[in-house]
Amino acid sequence: MFIIDVTNPLTLILLLSATVLLIFLGHEIKKPIAPAISLAIFLILVVIHSVQLVILPEADYETYRSVLLGCLTVDLVMIFVTFFGYLWIDDIACKFYKRKSIDNSLDWFWKQI
Question: Are the C-beta atoms of residues 26 and 37 closer than 8 Å to each other?
Fold first, then answer.
């Protein structure tokens, strides 16, 4: 079974650096589409890893179960980071283009800190 193993340290470093670069690119161009690309990729990875975990054959269950659960954990953490990056860039873009945001998505977060 082919698995995109994101728990591998090299793959994890590459994914993290690509995510940070996309968030930085979105900050520089003041468009939230760059972090949204990263968010969409991680959402697709969650779906792929979930489907692979569900259809995992009994013969390979013990060997691949821990790998897939680790991949799902990494995917969900990266979705969390990327989603806050997306909200941050969206807030910056609204302020830069002087648009009214539908809701101040990060105000609740900053008030709690």
Answer: no
Assess contact for 83 and 39: CB atoms under 8 A: yes
From CA 108, how far away is CA 47, in angstroms rounded?
Answer: 29
Alpha-carbon distance of 47 to 4, in angstroms, equals 12
SS3 2: coil
Q: Give pTM, 2 decimals.
A: 0.84
Q: How far apart are CA 39 and CA 52, in angstroms?
A: 20
pLDDT digits (tens, 9 = 90+) for 11-58: 999 999 999 999 999 999 999 999 999 999 999 999 999 999 999 888
